[in-house]
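Holo prediction — flavin mononucleotide.
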Amino acid sequence: MEKETARVLALLASPVAGGRTARLLDAFLSQLPRAAERIDVYRASFRPCTACGVCKTREGCAFPDLDRFDRLLRASQLLVVASPVYNLSFPAPMKAVLDRFQRYYEARFSLGLRPPVETHREAVLLTVSGTEDPDGPALMARQLRMAFSVMNTTLAETVAWTGTDGSGASPEREKEALCRAEKSALAIARKIW
Ligand SMILES: Cc1cc2nc3c(=O)[nH]c(=O)nc-3n(C[C@H](O)[C@H](O)[C@H](O)COP(=O)(O)O)c2cc1C
């Protein structure tokens, strides 16, 4: 069943089924009072932006593969992006989605729609990284904040599970990271509902 009325939209941007990013997302979603509509970004293989310029001339995109995402986004009150850190950024399939958000930028600045997305939503970024380097999660949050500025979407929080390819892989560190994700979900749920 496609929950078109789902108020929570979750993007999973890891290729590893049942991996750490998936576990962090599951922990977060488990504490929400609403079921989430999930999109597996790797499985969906969304096309990258080709800078064709169609979104400068009409609202939307030349490619229809993100139409369902767009409908779910507009219906959502909470957007969750769960991603591993790859080379200090999002994995390529998620970066493709991020670039496709250009349609909202052009809707605002070429077509003059204010706002391009009518309703507001909160967002949370969940990141998982092999090292303790804070730059990847910080950069990813910055990328989302920029894109979200024309999507009526506020990045409320980042939950970062770091060091997973070292000591961060220990059961204690995993428990601590999942616990932070759960607490974040409870806090954001209180704020929204
Ligand atoms: C292609 C690739 C690039 C990566 N780049 C980084 C990186 O820049 N910084 C980092 O801390 N970890 C990096 N990692 C490690 C992953 O972020 C880490 O293993 C994470 O736990 C993977 O999550 P998963 O279990 O969902 O696959 C990289 C892993 C891969 C496969």
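READOUT: The chain has one domain: 8-192.
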